[in-house]
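Below is one such record:
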Amino acid sequence: MKQANSLIHESSPYLQQHAYNPVNWIPWSEEVFEKAKRENKLVLISVGYSACHWCHVMEHESFEDEEVAKLMNEYFINVKVDREERPDVDQVYMTAVQLMTQRGGWPLNCFTLPDGRPLYGGTYFPKEQWKNILSSLQHLFANDLEKAEEYAARLHEGIVNSELIAIPQEATPFEQQKLHELVTRWKRQFDTIEGGNARAPKFPLPNNYSFLLQYGTRFSDEQVLKHVELTLDKIAMGGIYDHVGGGFARYAVDMLWKVPHFEKMLYDNAQLISLYSQAYKVFKKPLYKRIVVQTIEWLQREMIHPEGCYYSAIDADSEGEEGKYYCWTLKEYQDVLSDNFAFASDLYSFNARGHWEEGKYIPLRVLSDKELMLKYKLSETQLEERIATVNELLRNERKKRVFPGIDDKSLTSWNALLVTGLCDAYAAFGEEEYKHLAHKIVRWIATHQLKSDFSLYRTRKNGTSTIDGFLEDYATVIQAFTRFYEITADEEYLLKAQQLTMYTISHFQHPESKMFYFTPDSTTLIARKMDINDNVIPASNSIMANNLWNLGHLFEQQEWLKDARQQLMNLYDGMEQYGSGYSNWAILLLNNTNRFYEVVVSGDTSGERLSEWQQIYAPYTITAYNSEVIPLGKHKNTAQNLFYICSETDGCLPPVSDLKDVLELIQP
């Protein structure tokens, strides 16, 4: 029987996956480097996550190999890290590897001196190369320590300096022209045939399209709006979307959104629910509503925890094969679908377009709803019924297969992103269940992840919350609680958002630049990093800047508005060069260079008018309710159903009762 290593006591599914490796893995802790100094050994910090395909490959090739393990155990302290639990560790050592190799990814393998300063690193290494690296590094450490120390010192300096924020000496006014230049440069990268950017692999990057949707509507830019619609159509029709079960894979490996990297992550799906809900308000496409409904149904079926929170991810692999759970042969299609085969063949492209490899097909769509309705003489309702029938048949057959591994830890930040997604879905479609599901998650955060001093836990598994939260957790929870207030008028969570903001400022904020470190002031890592660039999740700094903007208005807190503008000013010069990496910052710039409206709803908040207001696409507003507690909502007439509208540009306008009048007054 295999002997377990120290990871057997960890709750992380990723760490548990490595618990029976012959490598003497230990989990990350403050004592790692003390142990390394005592034993005079180099440290290997190996970072991955449970749904990572190449992490599995390297484990099988090297970490399960007795010969490799013997080398690792003799000369190194071997530390396994779940990047989703410890993004702070991942950030520091990813920066080191990127400085060394100009590229990064997972698995991330970084070797350090006994004090934690990086010496060498990379991503996936084949077995023979890995063995050579182990031997070479041990030889260097044993025979030329001075050279190793010198290199590590230079690299450490590079890490510390990599994200220093230059504070502008003088404030320049924000200008719309900066946004136009950013979008003009971005347009050159548009894939006008398949949507997204003209390169592969293709990631959905929801915040990119959230910004472009806002920009397109504000400036009536038809090219941008068409690109957003094309991209969302192609993603929704492509193989990156699981048409049978709902939910999106992390990215497509090709230009066509056809072949996914099959793992499903909660953070992607949370944000795509938001994006498709927002886009539905603009384009009114039944396809977008279907995507949101199916994705939420999938979350309920496969990702929900009894406490009301959601798991982190579903693996790409099952039975050691990537995508096996999700692909079909033609014979399987025929056997399962029977009389529905012809329709399903047109629906999900049982042809050359849908063929992937070795006789396997990925369900994807080419024909639009209208084309299918015309060909099969179906009404919209009949089409929905036929699609639902096909999906149910395929889903029931799929249940007989071995289900991919599920990462069943629950992360605070990713659940917070889902709160925002569910709130946006509720606003767009008025489905009470979505508000109920959002409420369950905010209660879970408040009950299990929020401590009495307003600090947060990062993760929860098996009824135990662990690991102190990072800026990503605070930023996304503040955003979620604020959004939940906007759709419910529930002041309890807005007041919690206020307290969380004060805690974050106290423990994470740089006093001069007003930017926020990713780690709190209690961190013991070799460097404190700042998360600046928007990526698959927006930068935690850009989320905080938008939080300060929104809460600054709701609580009439001028200092927070000033901090938000300072954060934006720090990045203003040059953000036009890389729109995709500054899309959430660009949303804040939109709100600073165009009208931004405070809308206070007084009177009855349970009626149709509130639902109608929420279904309007007006991202340049913040909604409050008459209140004795929330400053923006004070001194409003509670006896009448009125909308109070204010902006910095126009001041406060006379209250109106009719939604048509509201729409006249809040022109973008």
Remarks:
- The chain has a mean pLDDT of 94.
- Residues 380-398 form the longest helix (19 residues).
- Residues 368 and 459 are 41 Å apart (CA to CA).
- The first strand starts at residue 26 and ends at 27.
